[in-house]
């Protein structure tokens, strides 16, 4: 199971986080609890338990949920979960620190450091856009952001998940057809800091950025599309991000 914005548990956790950012902790907790109750497999339980851990009133109750998140995450053992382990181990260590358990705190901080080593993602990789491109074309940094009119991007962005690229295509400016291309990085790349450890732990969207061009090597002709209502909600969220893009 990979991160998918169409997944109902992911959508619930996104809605809960929106409430949390507005300071509505009780409403957020109720939504996260619903996500937990409706989660049907380990990846969904890993995500829901993580968010339940964030809204607990005490270190001991937070620890219970975070350890539950870890338990389910380790059963999945995919790149989305692995990218979240440094922050999850750190949060568990923080709980032990507040509970004055120095031995366990040190243990989990060491786990966080170990998990934070480079996690290679071999792709395949995708880029969502409305541009009409050909095989062999290069996508290069220096374009204007789709989300902020006055921002020239220093990097080119891509993902290892087709639904994520499809969402990026849907959010791209213009009225030309949405396109999802298969791309190959021509140089080094890093986690996208605009999503890593932001709304969701780690880099579950497997989103990356590079200062080097991406080469178009193919095109995905069909992918799951979000309904217009959901796209509108995403655009509203992005409008609130103005000035917050890490470039």
Automatic annotation (TrEMBL):
Highest taxon of source: Bacteria
What InterPro entries would the database entry show?
Answer: Arr_sf (IPR038611), Rifampin_Arr (IPR021975)
Q: Domain Rifampin ADP-ribosyltransferase: where?
A: 125-223
- Pfam families assigned to the protein according to its UniProt record, in alphabetical order: Arr-ms
In its UniProt entry, what is this protein called? Rifampin ADP-ribosyltransferase domain-containing protein
| Species annotation | Mycovorax composti
